[in-house]
Design brief:
single chain; 119 residues; alpha+beta; 5-stranded mixed beta sheet; two-stranded antiparallel ribbon
């Protein structure tokens, strides 16, 4: 496979996984939801996290990119929609040592997927 000139292949390193459920239109009384995984990973190819101090605290910038959705089997063998959201390794290092920062990284990952894949 040839990579287009304006693109680059990034091979991310593992970080942590977010498991969520995608709720769509359902029949009344149907509480089923499709399980979805978000693999939060890292690559040196991305920009480092940065922040600006404000009167209310710190305003963080967390550069990231999203891989295409694909199916992966869960522990029970059920196919689940899966996404990769990649950040700079410093972002994940900070997330490992600070739960509040990890929640912010998770929120950015969820928002990025929601805005890029409306379905």
């Amino acid at each position: 496979d040839k990579v287009p000139k304006d693109m680059k292949i990034v091979k991310p390193k593992g970080g942590f996984v977010l498991k969520t459920k995608k709720r769509g239109k359902r029949a009344k009384g149907d509480d089923s939801a499709e399980k979805c995984f978000i693999n939060v990973c890292s690559s040196e190819e991305l920009e480092k996290p940065s922040f600006k101090s404000t009167a209310k605290g710190q305003n963080w910038s967390l550069p990231h990119m999203i891989g295409p959705p694909h199916m992966v089997q869960d522990k029970k063998g059920t196919p689940c929609m899966t996404f990769e959201v990649c950040f700079h390794p410093e972002t994940l290092d900070k997330a490992r040592s600070n739960d509040q920062f990890k929640n912010m990284v998770a929120s950015v990952a969820f928002s990025a997927i929601k805005s890029n894949y409306k379905k």
